[in-house]
Amino acid sequence: MDTTRPRLTPEQALQFAPDASAAQNAQKLAKPGQWQILRCQPPVIWGEIQGSALYKAAFDLDTLEFKCSCPSRKQPCKHGLALVLSWAQSAERFEEAEPGGWVSEWLAKRQAAAEKKSAKLSEADNAMSVDEAAQAKRLAAREKKVQGGIHELQLWLDDLMRGGLAHARTLSGSHFDHMSSRLVDAQAPGLAVTVQELASSLRIPQWQKRAPHALGRIALILETYQRQAQLSPGLQADARALVGWQMAQEDVLASPPLADDWLAMSHRDGNLETGNGRYRRQWLWGRQSKRAALLLSFAFGSQSLSPPYPAGLTLPARLCWYPSATPYRALVRDADPVQKQALSPVTGFHLLTEALEAQATQLALNPLLTTLPWLLSEVTPLLSHQDWYIRDREGQAVPVDINDGWALLALSGGEPLTVFGEWNGQRLQLLNAWRDEELLT
Amino acid sequence: MSSVWQQLEVSALLGTGKSSPLSGWPAPLVPLMSTLPEPNSSRALLVQLAISAVWQRAGMQPVALAAVAPALPEDTLRPLNPSARKLLCDAMDRDYPKDLRFILLQNMAGKGFRVDARHLPALLKDATDTSMRLLLGQIVGQRGAWLARQNPDWQWLIGATLPLNTESTAIRTFWQEASNPARELFFTRWRQHNPAAALTFLQLLWPEESASQRSLWLGLCRPQLSDNEAPWLESLLDDRSKQVRDTAIALLARLETSPWRQRMQAYAKACITVTTTPTLSILEITPPHTQTPEMIRDGLDQLTGQTQGLGEKAMWLRNLVAGAGGHWLLSHTGLSAEDLIASLQKTDWEEALLWGLSKAAIAEHCDPLLLALASSPRNVNVSTHAWLNAMTTPVREQAIQRMWQDPHKPAACLSDTQDIEYWAWSEAFSRSLLDALPQLKALGNRHSHTVSLLQHKLAMHGHAELLTTLPSHAIPPDVADIWQRRLHIRTVLDEA
Questions:
Q1: I need a surface site. Which of A83, B143, B227, B474 has the fewest CB within 10 A?
Q2: Window A:12-31, CB contacts with B under 8 Å
């Protein structure tokens, strides 16, 4: 049995689940006796399971890719998930064998696709100067539309501010939906999202606190966008991205990559404010560079989000960043097989004042930032007045949001540990914590 | 800045038509704010909101909070080995059978292992009954005890983990400060470990406790009850609380040589006489005419609960028989258990006498009487499983086997045996249920739920080693799966 690859734990296997029902079904299908065949030839595992038909599933332990012959649109489906879960629970159930038939066909197809992708990357490097004039014309036309949308939004906001937010709260949803649609028509979908966020902020119990922030956010984006010429290229890119200008992935991948061993953190999924899709956020932490990278993926309609990297494993990879005054969002250009490396050497800020000073520095570079990745070491969790906090060794604390504070407290036992999360300016959304080599997801 | 932000909030809520000019800007922002055109316009307000939000966030400060002392290092319990850790992870899954999880935790306690910290919150949350709480007390270790102190809902664990050799002043302090669940757990453990010391402590704090609490603590003295505790129990017959007196009587009824028992036997002797002829024995029952103060003190007064339909004298008779004891009654009448029951059934006081006899047999674990009661037709409102549960294990198993094998009432035996309590089933008993299962399943859908409950008990408490000796077709797959897992638990925990 292969001992060079890190063994996925059942918890890590379940992190691939696209939703709770897939995870539940996979757990049933992973029980002994469910699979007709279970085989392995690392890095590939495969099996056959009887459902309404005989389904064939496979998984690559290095690239974390799934394959299944069932008609489900979920990615991964319950069969693929069950296969990986079976491997994580008891790899000894898998018989070593040479891949043949449909498995080798799948492997061959993947190899061909990888070669094609690599060739395409090389072509992109050479094709930068194609039809720049036409591109400039398209950009100018779009800019004109965006400016029209911005002008309309500014008039709409002026109107809103004359009446005040208390009055705005009495307006129907269509008042906001209409403005949002106009911005989509103006090819400024990012601004459309901010209008929906304002509408949402007026519907929650704490609206008197949240709505002024949402309003200020729209104003900040508009003011920054209108002053682009005076800003650094990075901040220009941030403002344009927030308005809705997207950069092609090929262009991002053409930038110089940074190679490192990236520790994968837990992912977080959510619904898009526009209501037509879902997103997945997953942070990676560079063990040498100490840089954080945000992988952001989207799925619309019946599409599935791409599977995440299992939290706690390390991905040796080359990453390329989207341009920004404070680059976080990145793409994986190419990667080597995931590895299991020790968690304890990965450290971050030891004092909260350091983290907050870093925040101030980042905000000075990019006032448009909403969320910052925080890696904090030697902190202890505690419960105070029914709210959870993280406290550093100097006694300073910040509030945290966490699914199960008691699990975190149990892990700590009152002793310091390392945590990772997203800081939104008021609270830290905890994603992971570890003490020695024990990881909490 | 916070007051400026509050002004901005108000302005934003009211609108530019009603808001007032803002003041109190932080010094670095004053030059910037002064460049804004039309200070009271919508545009200016929006820009002020934009800048202030960023400024406020950039200047955010943490709060100061006191630390909590960390948990003590683990000293006595050992961590799980990797295989056992994996087993426990599987056992914490929602779909894992709860009974099997209990068995795993029991095995862990027996081997001196402690639970991984990650599982502590889930285990503590789910522990609602005494047996689980006592078990957790043995396996949570210092980390678990520390964790429980942080959560008011888990304070009961203090009672399950406080060392039994704690110095008496500390015990007193614990007793004054702890919740009732915590005190109950501690007292239960103490009584098991050092019954005399626990009782002495109870006697010391007796005057401070409420009636309901006194009755509760007294009830917890049932394990390890001994004859030298009888004098104190006798003194409780004068307690002002009826609850306490009734509990004391229930305990005295378990002590064969207590003065109370002897008085009850004297009362019973006067009421129950035997006339013996060459061919048969006839019981003559003469209930007491009146209730004396001594009888009232000894508990021969009206009782609530299962008393409806019985007259006053019937109840006296019932309590007399219950108090005199089954062994004594057999000796006094010279009859066998079956004959005694048959004789009592011929009297006018059948229901009361049989109820009393049943209560006595259960309290004394009198196997001959329990067997006779379980197997004879009778008119008494006591469940068969109460008799079965009171029997000693070998006798119980024999009784149940006979019931399963009785071709006349297989369905009745199902309802009689479905509530029997846990014990480690012998190989022979397990085999007998395996043999009876096909017949029980053939009774049909009406009984399928009860049969499946029995099968579940077989899986959890049956002799799992039969897996290695019986052919696979002889064991239902569900049972085989659980037996496999039980054997695996033992193997894995033995590995360390």
A1: B227
A2: 27
